[in-house]
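#random but structural
TW: two for the price of one
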Amino acid sequence: MAALLYLIPLVAGVLVAVLKLDFAVSMTDSLETWLHQKRMNNGVRQGFIRRWFLRPFFWGGSQVMRLTEGINNEYIQSGTRIVLFSIFMLVAAMVAYVAAIFIAVLIGVVIVLWIVFAVLGASDGASKPVPQNPFKGRGRYKNKNVYIDEKGVMRDAESMYPFEVARVSNDGNVTESGSIFGPDGVINGRGDIKDAPILGDKIGHINPD
């Protein structure tokens, strides 16, 4: 089958040269002009398909025409061009076929990897419980009623929209929202909030849940 694909253009080229078919000469001349115009047009435009597919195709086709310019007999030249351009087309089609398979496989691998990592990430997230802040509870801080949620966010308990007052780390450091030099306090084991770890003044107290 493959040999037949190469044999048909060869027979056609020989018939053009032997029978001196004028329409074949006109056809190959028009093909040369078309290839040249397309090569020039795609040479100034950008794009993935133009760069990796169209430009090489039109360049290769133009080279076929250039290689046969030295043949003086227009019928032999036309027949030779038919043979060479047909072979070039067959090779280009095989290259495009292989490239399409490669791209399809690559996309498939990327999709499979994305699904695998997404599933693994979801299972890891489901199996690892979010650690709860040990100081979660309610109390007072600087004369305000506050509560600390499971994420360690201290919020104003008196406001209709409880805004963030401070952040409490798992080791008890209290850093007020907008503070640059924090921490601004520390919670000890009894739930007392002091403005310094040692000999600090009591500025609040939290009753852990």
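TW: number two ↓
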Amino acid sequence: MRSSKSKKVIKAQPVLPFQDAASLSDPEREKIEEQVALLRLGHYLAEGKRLRPQEPILLLLHAFNRIVEDEPSIGFDEHRAASTLERLGARIDRAAPFECKSKYRVTVPEQLRRRAIEAATIKKSEIGEPQTE
């Protein structure tokens, strides 16, 4: 018998608006975006995925749009993900239009990687693992 220890992932549209965007000011919205992006980046890295320097940001969008049950339903487009990662401390470079489809390339420093994995680990321990008998 297999026990499911992973969280339920809800498939999302490429970009989802805030549920109550009108009630949040820009700084509040940015703070929530940063928290969600940090958690989703942490989940991505905790799965053993690797990020190369100058990674096209389009390769990360699937991870940024994986909405887990207990998280706000925030979706990221390429620009929103780039600006949020930059606020978190990643280096964002604009890609030349002839290089690839992605408009941005991201380099995530080691300190941000550790912070993201730690945030995801703490969140996972708060939720707790389902118990099997």
